[in-house]
Write a structure and sequence with these properties.
mainly alpha; Helix Hairpins; 6 helices; about 75% helix
């Protein structure tokens, strides 16, 4: 595991699988299943967008942190690791967004 805060946070999140939902918010999310976690990611994404359009930088920062946390919970619930995502980002490095999107559609 790297020293990156997202990797460390993921490790903590992943360790909460099977924990008591009464004592851990993360465990409570896991107990509700991936669909509910994904819905929560959507809610946090909307809140992040709202703050990105109309909010102050501090509010955007806080909502971004919430979004990243819930996204990491979803990754863990679905068996995706940060390293999986980092590798995908590395694969796309140096490629234009237009080119990358065109490759996905073919």
């Amino acid at each position: 595991m790297s020293d990156h805060v997202l990797d460390r946070l993921y490790a903590v999140i992943d360790s909460r699988k099977g924990a008591d939902p009464e004592s851990s918010y993360t465990a409570k999310l896991f107990s509700r299943g991936a669909k509910k976690i994904a819905e929560k990611v959507g809610e946090e994404a909307v809140e992040t967008v709202i703050e990105g359009v109309a909010g102050e930088p501090a509010a955007l920062t806080a909502e971004s942190a919430d979004l990243l946390y819930h996204l990491l919970v979803l990754w863990s619930a679905k068996g995706v690791t940060p390293d999986d995502v980092w590798q995908e980002l590395a694969r796309r490095e140096g490629m234009s967004g237009i080119e990358e999107k065109a490759r996905r559609t073919t």
